[in-house]
Predict the 3D structure of the following.
Amino acid sequence: MSAAGLAVALIVLMVVISAQSQFFFTSGNFVNIGRAAVESGIPAAAMTLVLVCGELDLSVGATFALGGIAAAELLNAGYSGGLAIAAGLGVGIGAGLVNALLIVGLNVNPLIGTIGTQFAFRGLAYIWTSGNALSAYGYSGFAYLGQGKIGPIYFSTWLMIAVFVVLGFILSQTRYGSHIYAIGGSRVAAKRVGIRTGRVRASVYVLSGAAAALAGLVVASANGSASAQAGTGDELLIISAVIIGGTALVGGRGNLIGTFLGVAFLAVLQNGMDLVGLQSFWQIFIEGVVLLIAITIDEQFRRRRSREE
């Protein structure tokens, strides 16, 4: 879906929800929407680069959990909030490197490889915590990450916006970004013109792992705890936002503006379903239908483009 079309769809959705709930168009509700969007928004920004490059990462939900757990572990051991955040990001980078080794180094299919690491990382999270939540409450430096505000807006929302701006600039304005598009369009052609495809492909997995862990840190900070269950199912919501935003599943097409609108659309949809009291199983069904519609639109676009070529 184009950015303009998605923006119109978002406006229509907002009008429909506002007609059903008087609490939707309030400043407090929009602050909450922005805060809730962070969980999928930060990983979705990095996932855009992954999909544009023609890759796929289904391990982000489990990496999300590992990032928060690593930080909570260090906090409980008496280390500073800054070091805990660095440890969480380090775990995310490490998870990305594992994916890069499997997929780029050993030529494992990205779908199969990241399903495997998803289970491995989630299992590691449960082993690490013995299935128990770890406290991350009461550490002022770490708490600001998910609970602090700049003006009326949560710091985490500003952080998400900053991630989108930085990655959007990298993808659209740098040589590295053009290499990502080239590899997603045709890996063979990219190799022929001298692009180091292996390094670029590996780097997007590292970025994805770091972004997933960062989101896990934010949520652990906001909740005051970290759990092995955190982020379960988030990978599909994240990919949904990216595809809804116009990024092609087969690579070579996409941008961060579209993804941002996709994240906003799903966050508003979730908020609206909560406000009208829609039961959870209906919410899951509706989110699935939205994903199917987005995938169908993407496939039709791909076929049309193939016929034109």
